[in-house]
From TrEMBL:
Active site: E253
GO molecular function: oxidoreductase activity, acting on the aldehyde or oxo group of donors, NAD or NADP as acceptor
Aldehyde dehydrogenase domain location: 16-477
Annotated source species: Pseudonocardia endophytica
Family: Belongs to the aldehyde dehydrogenase family.
InterPro entries per record: Ald_DH/histidinol_DH, Ald_DH_C, Ald_DH_CS_GLU, Ald_DH_N, Aldehyde_DH_dom
Parts forming coiled coils: none
Entry keywords, A to Z: Oxidoreductase
UniProt-recorded name of the protein: Acyl-CoA reductase-like NAD-dependent aldehyde dehydrogenase
Length: 489
């Protein structure tokens, strides 16, 4: 838990200041269902103050005008601090949103440092300055910071996604207003402490937890130059419409309904084990999970037996227990949403092979049993809409063309997998799937590669050198003959 006493204030202009609002946001344990903390719910004047601080820091402060080397030095200190406080971060996120602690240690605590270190590694080689020469002219092309960024992050991997946005933004020289999700503001408070201790100048990052109405005010604020959002597709559409009014720069990392395609030559043993985390990581609350598993009809029963046996070995329970693999969902509202999808699957004729209810003996926590559906038609609601819980649909196909058609029969296009004994064959199938990322035999792409979505899964890319692109404006300067400019990066 954040224990500095700052959780009664907002981080604006490099200081912990009293909120102008008297409203609060209560952080509730998904396991005990009891309150564990509260923070101010920022008001419109609070957001205006945060944006003004970020604007002042960008227009008149040192950060955009410091060298890349200096910005790397500050963020390297942040990386060191993330490593030093990893155990605290893991426990904090587990308390906030119920992520099983063993996963929290890798995904929620180690993950942000890995992301930051990757951007620190990539930054020196990014083409901040490049020269162009042709018969039609000679120029220098500059990539300059886009300006003041509103970073709006979700509750499922809050610190990881915050760093995914802040690292490239800050290295580019931007300033930021960070808006954490109401369910998980505490890790953002801890991050503000680390940034301040690392020597980040005042106003470069500001933290304002807020409800939806005030968040819309931030997104539409005329002094915000760019919005970076991760969350639901419905919210992404709303944000895109607000940004479109002012032609504001926006990137959106949205929902998914990703497919794992098992070809007829796949070894089901390792494939099923890959899907342990590939389909159920963070209790199903990850947008890139493979929640549609597409299997050869001739091997459907074989797969269902193996997959159900694996899922049955995933302990459900107290998220602070290192053995737990499925924890509670983040809120009672989210559990109700997931249970509604399970009812829909049953009503539309799919068969529950495993799970489908609430586990017994776990008190008042917001749990749903890991659930496997078979007999799923691609048109069913559970095969089309993002559930965001531990619910997986198994769909059968007769040939590879049908498998690809089922994989692509989705409004989403975020992630996917192909499992096969022939990697080249799998690669060829992967190229036919309309999605931003495809993992061949469960192989991760790593943070040096861009991630993001086709179709309703978003706009833009994060991670890799492409992750910087969203935080820069490109300027071309025509050069007189013989002139060689001096450009500092």
């Amino acid at each position: 838990m954040v224990s500095t006493g700052t959780d009664s204030k907002l981080f604006i202009g490099g200081r912990w200041v009293e909120a102008r609002s008297t409203e609060t946001l209560t952080v509730t344990s998904p396991f005990t269902t009891q309150p564990i903390a509260s923070v101010p719910s920022a008001s419109v004047p609070d957001v205006d103050a945060a944006v003004a601080a970020a604007r002042q820091a960008f227009d008149h402060g040192d950060w955009p005008r410091t060298s890349l080397k200096e910005r790397i030095a500050v963020l390297s200190r942040v990386s060191d601090a993330l490593g030093a406080r990893a155990d605290e971060i893991a426990s904090l996120v587990t308390d906030e949103m119920g992520c099983p602690i063993t996963l929290s240690r890798s995904m929620q605590a180690a993950g942000p440092k890995v992301v930051l270190d990757t951007f620190l590694e990539l930054a020196p080689d990014y083409p901040w300055v490049s020269e162009r020469q042709a018969a039609t002219g000679r120029s220098v092309v500059l990539r300059e910071p886009v300006g003041v960024v509103a970073a709006v992050v979700p509750w499922n991997a809050p610190l990881l996604i915050s760093i995914m946005k802040l690292a490239p933004a800050l290295l580019a020289g931007c300033t930021v207003v960070l808006k954490p999700a109401p369910q998980t503001p505490l890790d953002a408070y801890l991050l503000a402490e680390l940034l301040s201790e690392a020597g980040l100048p005042d106003g470069v990052v500001n933290v304002v937890p807020a409800d939806r109405e005030v968040s819309e005010h931030l997104v539409a604020h005329p002094e915000i130059d760019k919005v970076a959002f991760t969350g639901s597709t419905a919210a992404g559409r709303r944000i895109a419409s607000l940004c479109g009014h002012d032609l504001k720069r926006v990137t959106l990392e949205l929902g998914g309904k990703s497919a794992a395609v098992l070809l007829d030559d796949a070894d089901f043993g390792p494939a099923v084990e890959q899907l342990r985390t590939g389909s159920f990581r963070n209790s199903g609350q990850v947008c890139s999970l493979k929640t549609r598993i597409i299997v050869p009809r001739s091997r459907e029963r074989e797969f269902l037996d193996a997959f159900s046996a694996m899922v049955s070995t995933m302990p459900v329970g107290d998220p602070t227990d290192p053995d737990t693999q499925i924890g509670p969902l983040v809120s009672d509202v989210q559990r109700g949403r997931v249970e509604g999808y399970i009812r829909s699957g049953r009503d539309q004729g799919a068969q529950v092979v495993l799970g489908g209810g609430r586990p017994s003996g776990l008190g008042d926590g917001w749990f749903v049993e890991p659930t496997v559906f078979a007999g799923v038609d691609p048109s069913m609601t559970i095969a089309q809409e993002e559930i965001f819980g531990p619910v997986v649909s198994v769909l059968a196909y007769d040939d590879v063309d049908e498998a690809v058609a089922i994989a692509n029969d989705s409004a989403y296009g975020l992630n996917g997998s192909v499992f096969t004994g022939d990697p080249q064959r799998g690669f060829d199938v992967a190229r036919r799937i309309r999605t931003g990322t495809v993992e061949l035999n469960g192989s991760p792409v790593g943070f040096h590669a861009p991630i993001g979505g086709f179709k309703s899964s978003g706009i833009g890319r994060e991670a890799g050198p492409e992750g910087f692109d969203a935080y820069v404006e490109i300027k071309s300067v025509g050069l007189p003959k013989g002139f060689v400019p001096t450009v500092h990066v």
